[in-house]
Amino acid sequence: MPKIIDHDQRRREIVAVAKKLIIQGGFEAATMRSIVAEAGFANGALKRYFPSKDSIVAATFQSVLAEMNERINDGDPSLDPKEALRHDIEVTLPLDTYRIDSARVLLSLWEHSVANEELATLYREHLREWRRRLAVRIAEARDRGESPEAPTVTALAGEVISMSIGANVTCLMFPSGELIPEHRAHVDRLMRNITD
Q1: Closest Cα partner for 137 from 87, 193, 66?
Q2: Which residues does 156 contact at the CB level (< 8 Å), separation at least 6?
Q3: What is the 8-class DSSP label of residue 173?
Q4: Model-level pTM?
């Protein structure tokens, strides 16, 4: 009886290998050859799942963005609006080893997306949706009857996103987490600025 292969699981495994290689050696380390070797597949088997490195990169990018969205959506629905906002900010920051590694992958993929319009479009859509969700959370946390589209609210959402991206960039130089206390303190200041 032939062995039944879960092709979706194989794709997830390949993406996990690509992430691991990017974490260890940057974007250039995730070659088709190194992915095949690390995953333990025959050379031709990889092309069945991903015809090119760009297709693996796109799947890896989507995976990292989906993980970030899942962490945001994992918030406790019983949290009050201020704590829900704090949760949504903190899950995007490099506050543990896993998120520091995710930042390494995401930043490598950002660089690659500059020359790849499909990836750039994917990330722009992610940024728009992130800003929209943050604006809703901020308007709720401020409790001033503001619309999520109000200029003050959207400006604050932009500030949160810029702070998060900056924290993810700087964590690359401090991969053991030395900046985690600084990032947490910044969240406290940002929360006061938003809600006071």
Answers
A1: 87
A2: 134, 135, 138, 193, 194
A3: G
A4: 0.81
CATH number, domain 61-195? 1.10.357.10
> Does position 55 have pLDDT exceeding 60, yes or no?
yes
Give residue 148's pLDDT band: very low, low, confident or very high (50, 70, 90): very high
Least confident window among 29-43, 132-146, 173-187: 29-43
* C-alpha to C-alpha distance for 168 and 165, rounded to whole angstroms: 5
CA dist., res. 17 & res. 23, Å (int):
10
The CB-based long-range contact list for 118-122 (8 Å cut-off, 24+ gap) reads 118/58, 119/57, 119/58, 119/61, 122/58, 122/61, 122/62, 122/65
Q: What is the pLDDT of residues 161-181, one digit of tens each?
A: 999 999 999 998 998 999 999
Model confidence pLDDT, tens digit, residues 63-85: 888 888 788 777 778 889 999 99
CA geometry: angle 165, 29, 60, nearest 5 deg:
55
d(Cα 142, Cα 194) in Å, to the nearest integer?
7
Residue ranges covered by each domain of the chain:
61-195
Q: SS3 for 175?
A: coil
Place of tokens 């543990």: 96
Alpha-carbon span 67 to 62, nearest angstrom: 9
